[in-house]
Amino acid sequence: MSQRQVLQVFEQYQKARTQFVQMVAELATRPQNIETLQNAGVMSLLRPLLLDVVPTIQQTAALALGRLANYNDDLAEAVVKGDILPQLVYSLAEQNRFYKKAAAFVLRAVGKHSPQLAQAIVDCGALDTLVICLEDFDPGVKEAAAWALGYIARHNAELSQAVVDAGAIPLLVLCIQEPEIALKRIAASALSDIAKHSPELAQTVVDAGAIAHLAQMILNPDAKLKRQILSALSQIAKHSVDLAEMVVEAEIFPVVLTCLKDKDEYVKKNASTLIREIAKHTPELSQLIVNAGGVAAVIDCIGSCKGNIRLPGIMMLGYVAAHSENLAMAVIISKGVPQLSVCLSEEPEDHIKAAAAWALGQIGRYTPEHARAVAVTNTLPVLLSLYMCTESSEDLQVKSKKAIKNILQKCTYLPALEPFLYDAPPNILKHVVGQFSKVLPHDSKARRLFVTSGGLKKVQEIKAEPGSLLQEYINSINNCYPEEIVRYYSPGYSDTLLQRVDSYQPLIN
Amino acid sequence: MATLARLQARSASVARQYYYRNSVVDVFRKKENDAAVKIQSWFRGCRVRAYIRYLHRAATVIQKRWRGYLGRQHYQLIVKLAYYTMKMNLYNAMAVRIQRRWRGYKIRKYCFNYYYLKAYLKAVSETNEAVREALEEFADMKEREERKADLEKEEKKRDYQARKTHYLLSTKQIPGVYNSPFRKEPDPRELRLQKAKPLTHPRPKVTPKRSASLRNWLECTRARSFPRSAVLPPIDRKPCQGPFRDIAEVLAQRYKPLEPTLRVAEPIDGPKEARAELQRQEWTRNVQDNLFLPFSSYHKSKKHIPAMHLSSKYGPDSYGSRHFREKNPERWICDKDFQTVLPSFDLFSEYGKLYSKAGQIV
């Protein structure tokens, strides 16, 4: 009798604890409750519950903590300051898989906010236990651990180095090879976060043999997995020529182009980023991409999406064209220029416009043929308007000016140049008049056309300082025509004619 | 004497005569002198002119010869130069021809092969076309697959719906809702219902005692997903069931401690802990609690008590730091002072004085 009563007290207490912790965990899912919970001192109450004798309570307490810490960095800091981490780390190694998952969730939630918090986790020695969790049998535990490691490594190179030093990479590479899609996804994202900081870290990832496994999964039907895979590959390839060549060696090339046709926007974006990171290194790599038909695929991809997803593709075209004349020609014959000019005029955001302007400048700067290809798409007036527009950002203005200059200096396609005589500012007018002065002496048809279209008249109206470059160009244009015509088109000629009428003595027979 | 006397007698008249004659001639003297000068100048002029003419003629001859010589030499030079220029022009023209041919050949062959470039660009555009086509096809295939999957899903759903609403099927007596007697044909749904098999009653699910759906709510897939398990773990945990094994063994099996890898098992602050351990041991073993302090500062204030048999004074010796010779002059071997053997070094004797930039002492 008395024994039962005693036990009943305990049972009630246990029930109350369970209920409390469950309610707190439930309340923590809603952002509006967080403040109240915090003010009520939930941290200090949850902490002892982490050490509870009942595993369910422990797990639920950890879960509640994780949700709180996930919410904002103040709470995450409170978790760190409350000395909860060492307990978590200790029990992470010992408890069952549910608890491990919950503890890894807390670590992830704390570590994602700032490098300092992530450093605090590292200082607790959590990395070693997390790495042990990567060896766990349960895929859920592995996933949680990989997730936490990825969030820690994401912040900076030192933290990544710490993760690498803990020996996580070989295990993450093993995780990629697991059958669970979610685990693969998280492991690939962790590898991407590690590789993104420095060439050395990327090299470590490569040394662990990650590329081959990553490259195999490009054709995986899961879109989110593809995103992470492509991002990891591009983070590896971005650092150096060697690494980019390693990525290319994995024979990603015709395969990765299929990702450019994917339904998922981010897959497209990451695939174009990967191609861009590879193309930017050397002319040979760009050539390889061109030969594989990558440029056409990227151009199609640019045409099929909007906004920021286009940006890496646009930059990739610019990088390819920047390497050499022939590659720029390859971009032109892949019909890249019309697509870029569409981007230039359609996109609302300045940075995308700036990238498109830069790419067009890179394409048009080599020979008159290149410049002509750019000019016939009627891009130059758009570039000029972007340059003149006061609302454009400074970067956009600089880039469009540079592009205009690059193209104009090679352009011999006069119909495109002529509008510039009327509405270009003096610093650009100089180049336009210069091009005319170079072309007109050698082309009689153009000379005729130049007069009839009123270009000559406009040139006479330009006020140039004597001795300046502009004046020289104007003189050389004037030298292409008979003096009467030049005089006829000079401003004020009608007045002088009238004066002559006034002063003329009529002949009377 | 007489002559003398005569002469003296005549002297007066001579003087007069002399005066007289001079005064007569004086009138013509100037004129005659001028004439003489004129004659002389004319003569001399003729002579000098003739001489100069002679000299000029001689100079002309010399100059003629010399200039002729120089001119011929210059002419030779011009001819040589012209010949050389002509030759070089020819050579250059020929060299240009050769270079033109060669460079054209080389560029066309190796650097800018127009036909090759053309072929390359053509190949690139062909590849592009092929890639575009292939990708299009790929996308189409994906689309088709997706549509097919969607259709299948839809079909399944409809089937399920039909099975669920199988009771709407018309019987022999009463037409169902989809089989209006006023219509010619029954609704297609009616046909579906005919084909479908009615859904059997779901068996009451056997709920697992402890909810294994902990996974679900750990992943926060649903907002209210807590296992509201009525059954709490027993507090009065009984000893293990069955007498199969030794209890200690079972417990050891159940609560197996973590066996981390060696690297993880080893604490990070190993040396620190080892040091602490050493210190702890020393604390336990120490007999003497006073610290043994290092010499330098501790003994400074203490006075040294010399040994009984020692005669020398204890303390720092000034020899070597302040002087280099015995202080007591009586112990010197020779009674002279030390002398410098080597001459003093100039620069050091001027040490501490001011120097100008040129190295002179100011």
TrEMBL record, chain A:
<dbReference type="GO" id="GO:0046847">
    <property type="term" value="P:filopodium assembly"/>
</dbReference>
<dbReference type="InterPro" id="IPR016024">
    <property type="entry name" value="ARM-type_fold"/>
</dbReference>
<keyword id="KW-0969">Cilium</keyword>
<dbReference type="GO" id="GO:0015630">
    <property type="term" value="C:microtubule cytoskeleton"/>
</dbReference>
<dbReference type="GO" id="GO:0005930">
    <property type="term" value="C:axoneme"/>
</dbReference>
<dbReference type="GO" id="GO:0005874">
    <property type="term" value="C:microtubule"/>
</dbReference>
<keyword id="KW-0966">Cell projection</keyword>
<keyword id="KW-0206">Cytoskeleton</keyword>
<comment type="function">
    <text>Important for structural integrity of the central apparatus in the sperm tail and for flagellar motility.</text>
</comment>
<dbReference type="GO" id="GO:0005576">
    <property type="term" value="C:extracellular region"/>
</dbReference>
<keyword id="KW-0677">Repeat</keyword>
<dbReference type="GO" id="GO:1990138">
    <property type="term" value="P:neuron projection extension"/>
</dbReference>
<dbReference type="GO" id="GO:0008017">
    <property type="term" value="F:microtubule binding"/>
</dbReference>
<comment type="subunit">
    <text>Interacts with SPAG16 and SPAG17.</text>
</comment>
<keyword id="KW-0282">Flagellum</keyword>
<dbReference type="GO" id="GO:0007288">
    <property type="term" value="P:sperm axoneme assembly"/>
</dbReference>
<dbReference type="InterPro" id="IPR000225">
    <property type="entry name" value="Armadillo"/>
</dbReference>
<dbReference type="InterPro" id="IPR011989">
    <property type="entry name" value="ARM-like"/>
</dbReference>
<keyword id="KW-0493">Microtubule</keyword>
<dbReference type="GO" id="GO:0003351">
    <property type="term" value="P:epithelial cilium movement involved in extracellular fluid movement"/>
</dbReference>
<keyword id="KW-0963">Cytoplasm</keyword>
<dbReference type="GO" id="GO:0097228">
    <property type="term" value="C:sperm principal piece"/>
</dbReference>
UniProtKB/TrEMBL annotation, chain B:
<keyword id="KW-0677">Repeat</keyword>
<dbReference type="InterPro" id="IPR027417">
    <property type="entry name" value="P-loop_NTPase"/>
</dbReference>
<keyword id="KW-0175">Coiled coil</keyword>
<feature type="coiled-coil region">
    <location>
        <begin position="117"/>
        <end position="155"/>
    </location>
</feature>
<dbReference type="GO" id="GO:0005737">
    <property type="term" value="C:cytoplasm"/>
</dbReference>
<protein>
    <submittedName>
        <fullName>Spermatogenesis associated 17</fullName>
    </submittedName>
</protein>
<dbReference type="GO" id="GO:0005516">
    <property type="term" value="F:calmodulin binding"/>
</dbReference>
<dbReference type="InterPro" id="IPR000048">
    <property type="entry name" value="IQ_motif_EF-hand-BS"/>
</dbReference>
<keyword id="KW-0112">Calmodulin-binding</keyword>
<keyword id="KW-0963">Cytoplasm</keyword>
<dbReference type="Pfam" id="PF00612">
    <property type="entry name" value="IQ"/>
</dbReference>
<dbReference type="InterPro" id="IPR051185">
    <property type="entry name" value="ASPM"/>
</dbReference>
